[in-house]
């Protein structure tokens, strides 16, 4: 059996996971991206080990996916191992972020491919389910600091910002947590700018100059914070404060550039090998520190006049965190809200727990979605304008350079781009999509489908070249193959989160609904439903898709489509029904009856159906419909015989029904739910136990109320 790339991938994942034992990993500015890669690796590893132990032979597409994923995993490991404290943190984090994003998208692609060939794999290789793995990978945080930086540079160029909040976000995300780190970054960037100017790369030099201005603003922001913290009766003159410590100086000395610093701080700076003035970023011709008696005399007089006592610089420099001002400002701004949503991004573990109990606690899902709505909308807006923003700043990561200043370690930054041959081919294919010949269109859509199916980079290139509008127009094609391939291309492209907005903003929602209603092939309908689900990940599109009329045809597909179509429809309906206004539409379209029917284990959709029912049970109309459509007996059966997740979700739905209606409560008890509920309190998941205990407590209250009335 050919498993070479599978073994390489598994070996690379194992090597990546060993990074956790690195002594300096905790100080790495891209630590959060390591954690995200670790989460994905821990999902992949058991699945890959099961595949190796089985007799299953990976397809060519899977082997290609394994190869791509192995490459990204290995490159990411190399980047973490190559980190040097005196290299540029901003470009290092941008590079890591790019690789982490590719790792995430590539792992999604592999799990999607595994899901599509699930029926050909031994049963013991698909635990946990590939679909569950897909959803868990999607929950891995993917906030992009690259967009925030691009936008900040644009705002800075236009003279409208950036705000202090944006500066803090950039500094925190790139590991610039202290004044010293910010100043070092400015020095490194200045060297990079000089190198770019020597090679007449004006675009690169302009971009770096913008970053230098950002670091200068960060330094000024910290200086203002420290000024406020000094609590002096009068404002401290800037000449009396050290640019490194931001504190009043006690032993001011002059360096070769003519600038004055606190002795112990500038000595530490020089001892680190930084032969550059922190403030002017000029090379220091020598390391002699000359006492500045004039500043010392004026400083002493000022302190005596204003009754101010400077801090001991030795105590400051020996503290474990000398200047954590940015961290303090972040904590201060977040202390008012203890929500798991931090800096516009939900904590990955919290969201994973929420997802795992999604239908057992649909109200919690809705609550978290509401909390993240503004963040999601902001991300959506970022996605929509990211291509435009980056096209206005045609920047590429610089190649490795030799540094002229001693003591500065070069950053390891490499640029990997899409093949120019692929871009040339895609541009030709886009012209073919517009051809009047059906044969030409058919060949072009089939080729783009292949290209978009097999490569994260290809999806980016295809979208960047402008294929999406042409593919959207072909959704109305009268040729069944062209229509099916066009919708599948859009589904493949939507795997990239940036492309989601591009697809929706190209007016794809109504054409997708057209395919959903009138598609010639069941494959086209199912993939249309899957694409709508993919787009609905962005919060604002949940509303737009619901208002555009997608829910009724999705319910029709749920009732009469192929098994694949039913599954895609159920997934899309669950995601859409997270938005409160869509719940009633789903219920009125008759989804509950079909969902109850799909609770039959023969369909293999029990968990998909119960998760949607539990979500719909959070509104009055949903409770009534579940009761009237015979949902109570099948929910009780799931509590008794279902999977751990199914038991959790079914119990949540029953709790909603019982607290709504005494009649429903009596029906649930008559179905014999109490014994399996008692068992669930002992052996279920944490969330399942909680729901079961709450339901049993409610039964007790219900019984007492009946006794009083009796």
Automatic annotation (TrEMBL):
<dbReference type="InterPro" id="IPR016024">
    <property type="entry name" value="ARM-type_fold"/>
</dbReference>
<comment type="function">
    <text>Functions as an E3 ubiquitin ligase.</text>
</comment>
<dbReference type="InterPro" id="IPR013083">
    <property type="entry name" value="Znf_RING/FYVE/PHD"/>
</dbReference>
<dbReference type="InterPro" id="IPR000225">
    <property type="entry name" value="Armadillo"/>
</dbReference>
<feature type="repeat" description="ARM">
    <location>
        <begin position="466"/>
        <end position="508"/>
    </location>
</feature>
<dbReference type="Pfam" id="PF25240">
    <property type="entry name" value="PUB2_N"/>
</dbReference>
<feature type="domain" description="U-box">
    <location>
        <begin position="235"/>
        <end position="309"/>
    </location>
</feature>
<keyword id="KW-0808">Transferase</keyword>
<comment type="pathway">
    <text>Protein modification; protein ubiquitination.</text>
</comment>
<dbReference type="InterPro" id="IPR011989">
    <property type="entry name" value="ARM-like"/>
</dbReference>
<dbReference type="GO" id="GO:0016567">
    <property type="term" value="P:protein ubiquitination"/>
</dbReference>
<dbReference type="Pfam" id="PF04564">
    <property type="entry name" value="U-box"/>
</dbReference>
<keyword id="KW-0677">Repeat</keyword>
<dbReference type="Pfam" id="PF25598">
    <property type="entry name" value="ARM_PUB"/>
</dbReference>
<dbReference type="GO" id="GO:0061630">
    <property type="term" value="F:ubiquitin protein ligase activity"/>
</dbReference>
<keyword id="KW-0833">Ubl conjugation pathway</keyword>
<dbReference type="InterPro" id="IPR045210">
    <property type="entry name" value="RING-Ubox_PUB"/>
</dbReference>
<feature type="repeat" description="ARM">
    <location>
        <begin position="549"/>
        <end position="591"/>
    </location>
</feature>
<dbReference type="InterPro" id="IPR058678">
    <property type="entry name" value="ARM_PUB"/>
</dbReference>
<dbReference type="InterPro" id="IPR003613">
    <property type="entry name" value="Ubox_domain"/>
</dbReference>
<dbReference type="InterPro" id="IPR057314">
    <property type="entry name" value="PUB2-4-like_N"/>
</dbReference>
<feature type="repeat" description="ARM">
    <location>
        <begin position="590"/>
        <end position="631"/>
    </location>
</feature>
<protein>
    <recommendedName>
        <fullName>RING-type E3 ubiquitin transferase</fullName>
        <ecNumber>2.3.2.27</ecNumber>
    </recommendedName>
</protein>
């Amino acid at each position: 059996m050919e498993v070479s790339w599978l073994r390489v991938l598994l070996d690379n994942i194992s090597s990546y996971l060993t990074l956790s034992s690195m002594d300096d990993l905790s100080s790495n500015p891209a630590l959060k991206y390591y954690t995200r890669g670790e989460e994905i690796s821990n999902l992949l590893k058991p699945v890959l080990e099961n595949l190796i132990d089985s007799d299953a032979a990976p397809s060519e597409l899977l082997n290609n996916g394994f190869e791509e994923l192995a490459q990204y995993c290995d490159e990411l490991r190399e980047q973490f191992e190559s980190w040097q404290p005196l290299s540029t943190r901003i470009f290092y984090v941008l590079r890591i972020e790019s690789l982490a994003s590719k790792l995430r998208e590539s792992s999604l692609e592999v799990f999607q491919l595994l899901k599509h060939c699930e029926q050909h794999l031994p049963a013991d290789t698909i635990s946990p389910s590939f679909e569950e793995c897909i959803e868990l990978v999607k929950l891995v945080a993917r906030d992009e600091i690259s967009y925030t930086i691009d936008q900040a540079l644009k705002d800075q160029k236009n003279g409208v910002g950036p705000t202090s909040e944006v500066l803090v976000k950039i500094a925190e995300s790139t590991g610039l947590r202290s004044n010293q780190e910010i100043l070092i970054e400015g020095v490194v960037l200045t060297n990079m700018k000089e190198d770019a100017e020597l090679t007449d790369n004006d675009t690169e030099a302009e971009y770096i100059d913008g970053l230098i201005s950002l670091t200068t603003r960060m330094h000024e922001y910290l200086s203002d914070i420290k000024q406020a913290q000094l609590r002096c009766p009068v404002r401290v003159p800037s000449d009396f404060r050290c640019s490194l410590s931001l504190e009043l100086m006690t032993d001011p000395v002059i360096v070769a550039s003519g600038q004055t610093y606190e002795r112990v701080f500038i000595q530490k700076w020089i001892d680190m090998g930084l032969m550059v003035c922190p403030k002017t970023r000029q090379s220091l011709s020598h390391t002699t520190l000359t006492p500045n008696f004039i500043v010392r005399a004026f400083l002493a007089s000022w302190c005596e006049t204003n009754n101010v006592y400077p801090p001991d610089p030795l105590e400051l420099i020996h503290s474990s965190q000398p200047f954590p001002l940015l961290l303090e400002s972040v904590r201060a701004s977040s202390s008012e809200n203890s929500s798991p949503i931090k800096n516009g991004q939900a904590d990955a573990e919290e969201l994973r727990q929420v997802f795992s109990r999604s239908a057992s606690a649909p109200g919690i899902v809705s609550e978290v979605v509401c909390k993240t709505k503004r963040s999601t909308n902001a991300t959506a807006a970022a996605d929509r304008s990211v291509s435009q923003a980056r096209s206005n700043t045609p920047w590429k990561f610089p190649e490795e350079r030799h540094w002229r200043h001693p003591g500065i370690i070069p950053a390891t930054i490499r640029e990997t781009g899409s093949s120019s041959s692929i871009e040339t081919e895609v541009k030709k294919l886009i012209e073919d999509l517009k051809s009047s010949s059906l044969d030409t269109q058919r060949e072009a859509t089939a080729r783009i489908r292949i290209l978009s199916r097999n490569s994260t980079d290809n999806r980016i290139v295809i979208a960047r070249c402008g294929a999406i509008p042409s593919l959207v127009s072909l959704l109305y094609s009268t040729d069944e193959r062209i229509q099916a391939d066009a919708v599948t291309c859009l589904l493949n492209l939507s795997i990239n989160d940036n492309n989601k907005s591009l697809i929706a903003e190209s007016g794809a929602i109504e054409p997708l609904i057209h395919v959903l209603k009138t598609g010639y092939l069941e494959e086209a309908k199912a993939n249309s439903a899957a694409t709508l689900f993919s787009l609905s990940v962005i919060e604002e599109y949940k509303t737009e898709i619901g208002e555009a009329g997608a829910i009724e045809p999705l319910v029709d597909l749920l009732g009469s489509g192929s098994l694949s179509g039913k599954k895609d429809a159920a997934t899309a309906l669950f995601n859409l029904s997270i938005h409160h206004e869509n719940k009633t539409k789903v219920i009125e379209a008759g989804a509950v009856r079909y969902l109850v029917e799909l609770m039959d284990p023969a369909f293999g959709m029990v968990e998909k159906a119960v998760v949607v029912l539990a979500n719909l049970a959070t509104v009055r109309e949903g409770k009534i419909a579940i009761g009237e459509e015979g949902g109570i007996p099948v929910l009780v059966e799931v509590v008794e015989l279902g999977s751990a997740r199914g038991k959790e979700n079914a119990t949540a739905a029953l709790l909603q029904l019982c607290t709504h209606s005494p009649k429903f409560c009596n029906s649930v008890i008559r179905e014999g739910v109490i014994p399996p509920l008692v068992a669930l309190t002992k052996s279920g998941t944490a969330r399942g136990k909680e729901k079961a205990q709450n339901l049993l407590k409610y039964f007790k209250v219900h019984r007492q109320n009946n006794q009083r009335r009796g």
